[in-house]
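Exercise 3.2. Students should predict the tertiary structure of the chain below and write it as C-alpha cells, then compare their answer with the key that follows.

Predict this chain's 3D structure.
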Amino acid sequence: MSNTIPLVDLQAQYRQIGPEIDAAIRRVLGHTGFILGREVEEFEAAFAAFCGVAYCVGVDSGTAALHLALEACDVGPGDEVITTPFTFFATVETIVQAGAKPVLVDIDPATYNMAPSRIEDAVTPRTKAILPVHLYGQPAEMDVIMDVAKRHHLKVIEDAAQAHGALYKGKRAGSIGDISCFSFYPSKNLGAYGDAGAVVTNNAELADKVRLLRNHGRTTKYEHKTVGWGYRLDALQAAILGAKLPHLEAWNDARRAHSMRYNELLADTDLVLPYEPEHVRAIYHCYTVRSAARDGLSSFLRQKGIDVGIHYPIPMHLQPALKDVGYRAGDFPISERYSQMVLSLPMYPELTEEQVKQVSDAVHAYMDRA
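Answer key:
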C-alpha cells in the first residue's frame, strides 16, 4: 500500500513555488557559472542577514559545515568536544574525524537537548569546545552553554542543522555561539535539491578560515595557502536556496500551526507531546512524540498509509562505529530510553487540516484498540 500521507512532501513544496525554482535554475544554466560565483555570494549575504550574523560561508553539506567549523576552531588530536548522544551521526562523526574525543552529556527529559545542568561537569582540561544541537528545531539552552564556555575559555559551535529560523530569547539559532552549522538537506526547513550546507558566524577570522578551507586552501587559482577540501556550495543549489529563503518564515509559521493543531487533537492520548519553553520559538523540523508503544503505533500508522520516522533509534554511544570512544550501555539512560520511544509524525508546511486530523484519528484508533 502506498503512503497517502508522507513524512515529508517535497513535491507539494515544488508545486507551490515551481516557477520561482525553474527561473533560478534557468538563470544558472544561462550564465554557466556553476561553482561558487554570484549565486553563492548572493545567497550567503541573504542567509547571513536572515540569521542576524555578519558572515555566511556556503559549503556542500551540513557535515562539511561541522567539519570546517571544528577545523576553524583548531579542534584536533588530544582535544575534547562536549556534545549530545541524541543526534544525527554527523555531529559526533566530525569530532572523531578531527582527531578529538566526543564527550557526551545526557539530554534534558523535556526538550531532548543537552541537559544544561550536566554540561559543566563534563569540562576537563582537554575540553576545546561545546557543540550543542538544536534538535527537532528546538533551541538548546544557550545562556547556560555560553556562560560555561566563557568561564572555561571554550568555543561554542552550534549544530543548527534542524533549526533554520528558530529563536532563543529573540535571537536566531545559529547567531549565539562562536560559529554555527546549517544543513540544507532536501528535507530540512530550508532544503536544497541535493546536498548543501553553510557556516555562519560574527567572527571575521573564523569566516575567513572556513572560506579558505572549503576551496582547497587556495588564495588564487593555483596558489594554496593551506591544505583544505573541496567543500564548495555549487551555484545551482545556491540559486534554489535563494528562491526558497523568502518563503522560510511563512513555512515555519505553517509548521508551528500544524504542531499546535496536533497538540490539540492528541492532548487526550497517552503520547508525550513536544514541549516548548516560553523563551524559545521552535520551528518543528520534526513533530516528535514519545510512546512506550512506539513500534506498534508506527506499524499501525504505516498500515493506514501514514509515513512516520524515528529520530533517532540508536544513541551515539551505542553506535558500532563509535565503540572505541569508551562509553557503554547504561551511561546515558535518558537518551537510551527515549531512543526506544520517539516517533516523528508527518510534518511539512503544506500539510492540510484534513491530513493532520487523519493522522490524529489514526493515533486515536490505535490507542483505543490497544
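Discussion points: The chain has a mean pLDDT of 97. The chain has twelve helices and 14 strands.
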